[in-house]
Amino acid sequence: MKNNILNFSLIFLIFLPTLLFAQAKTGINTTDPQATLDVNGNLIVRTPEVLNATNTKSLYIDSNGLVGVLPTNTTTISTPIFYAQGEVTNIVSTNAGQTTAFNAGNTNYIVFKTEDIKYNKIGVKVVGGTYEIGESGIYTIASSVNTYFLTANAGVEIFVMMGIRKRASTTSNWETLLGTRPIIRMTLANQNTPIILPTINTYLERGTQLQFYFERSQYTGGGVQGAAITGVSIQSAYNTPGFSLSLLKL
């Protein structure tokens, strides 16, 4: 009987470290693991298995390095996206007066504000009324503008060049990133007309500044097109925002 007890005790002592180790935390490149498996450094997964399950989940990493999945009912945005939406916007022209500038064929542009930003997962910030890109990469850009024009008479047509332009820095020259030229027929002498701009995929460097612009289009040989206006604004109407801008990093 004593031999059996002694044998059991020896077996228990032999396997005790294994039992304790099973409940321990394992650290790789760290002496103070903070989780069941704590990896301090790069992680490589070679030839992963192909999963056929229909309930697979994406893994995310937080600012502390903790890896996990989002709950099914989360309201957290995990996609690298930026979205801004303005209701009543400030318009600035390249010369005095937005209406005068438009009629002369000069450029008007929207001044972006911090409070118009609804979601920002890519570090975009407001710099001098522009949105400045926080991360270099390829982006899908979608945008819209809700114009409000006034004219002396109904039934005339307004020719507009409208788009988004970019520059590398505050001291750089502007270049058009995307644009369109709608012809707005004024059924009324004052009316809202929403304009959806082309969606594009393009590479943007960190620090690139973006800005909405619009102007009266001109003939190749000179001279403005369409009717003159008596007033202009970019504003929300009929549940359509004054402008919207979405940047999705691919």
Descriptive key words:
Jelly Rolls; mainly beta; eight-stranded antiparallel beta sheet; 11% helix; 250 residues; 2 helices; elongated
Low-confidence stretches: none
Shape: elongated
Query: Might you state the CATH topology name of the domain at 81-249?
Result: Jelly Rolls
Q: Major sheet: size, sense and barrel closure? A: 8 strands, antiparallel
How much helicity do the residues have?
10-25%
Distance between the termini: 71 Å
What is the overall number of helices? 2
Rg calc:
30 Å
By secondary-structure content and strand pairing, the structural class works out as mainly beta
CATH class of the domain at 81-249 reads Mainly Beta
Provide the CATH architecture of the domain at 81-249: Sandwich
What is the N-to-C succession of helices and strands? Answer: HEEEEEEHEEEEEEEEEEEEE
- The proportion of strand residues reads 35-45%
How many DSSP E strands? 19
Mean pLDDT: 88
Protein name: TNF family profile domain-containing protein
Signal peptide: 1-22
Keywords: Signal
In terms of topology, how is this protein built?
Elements (H helix, E strand, L loop, with lengths): L1 H21 L3 E3 L8 E3 L20 E2 L5 E2 L12 E6 L3 E4 L4 H6 L4 E4 L5 E4 L4 E3 L2 E3 L4 E14 L6 E11 L7 E6 L2 E3 L4 E7 L3 E5 L4 E8 L14 E4 L8 E7 L1
Parallel strand pairs: 1-2
Antiparallel strand pairs: 3-4, 5-8, 5-19, 6-7, 7-17, 9-10, 10-17, 11-15, 11-16, 11-18, 11-19, 12-13, 12-14, 12-17
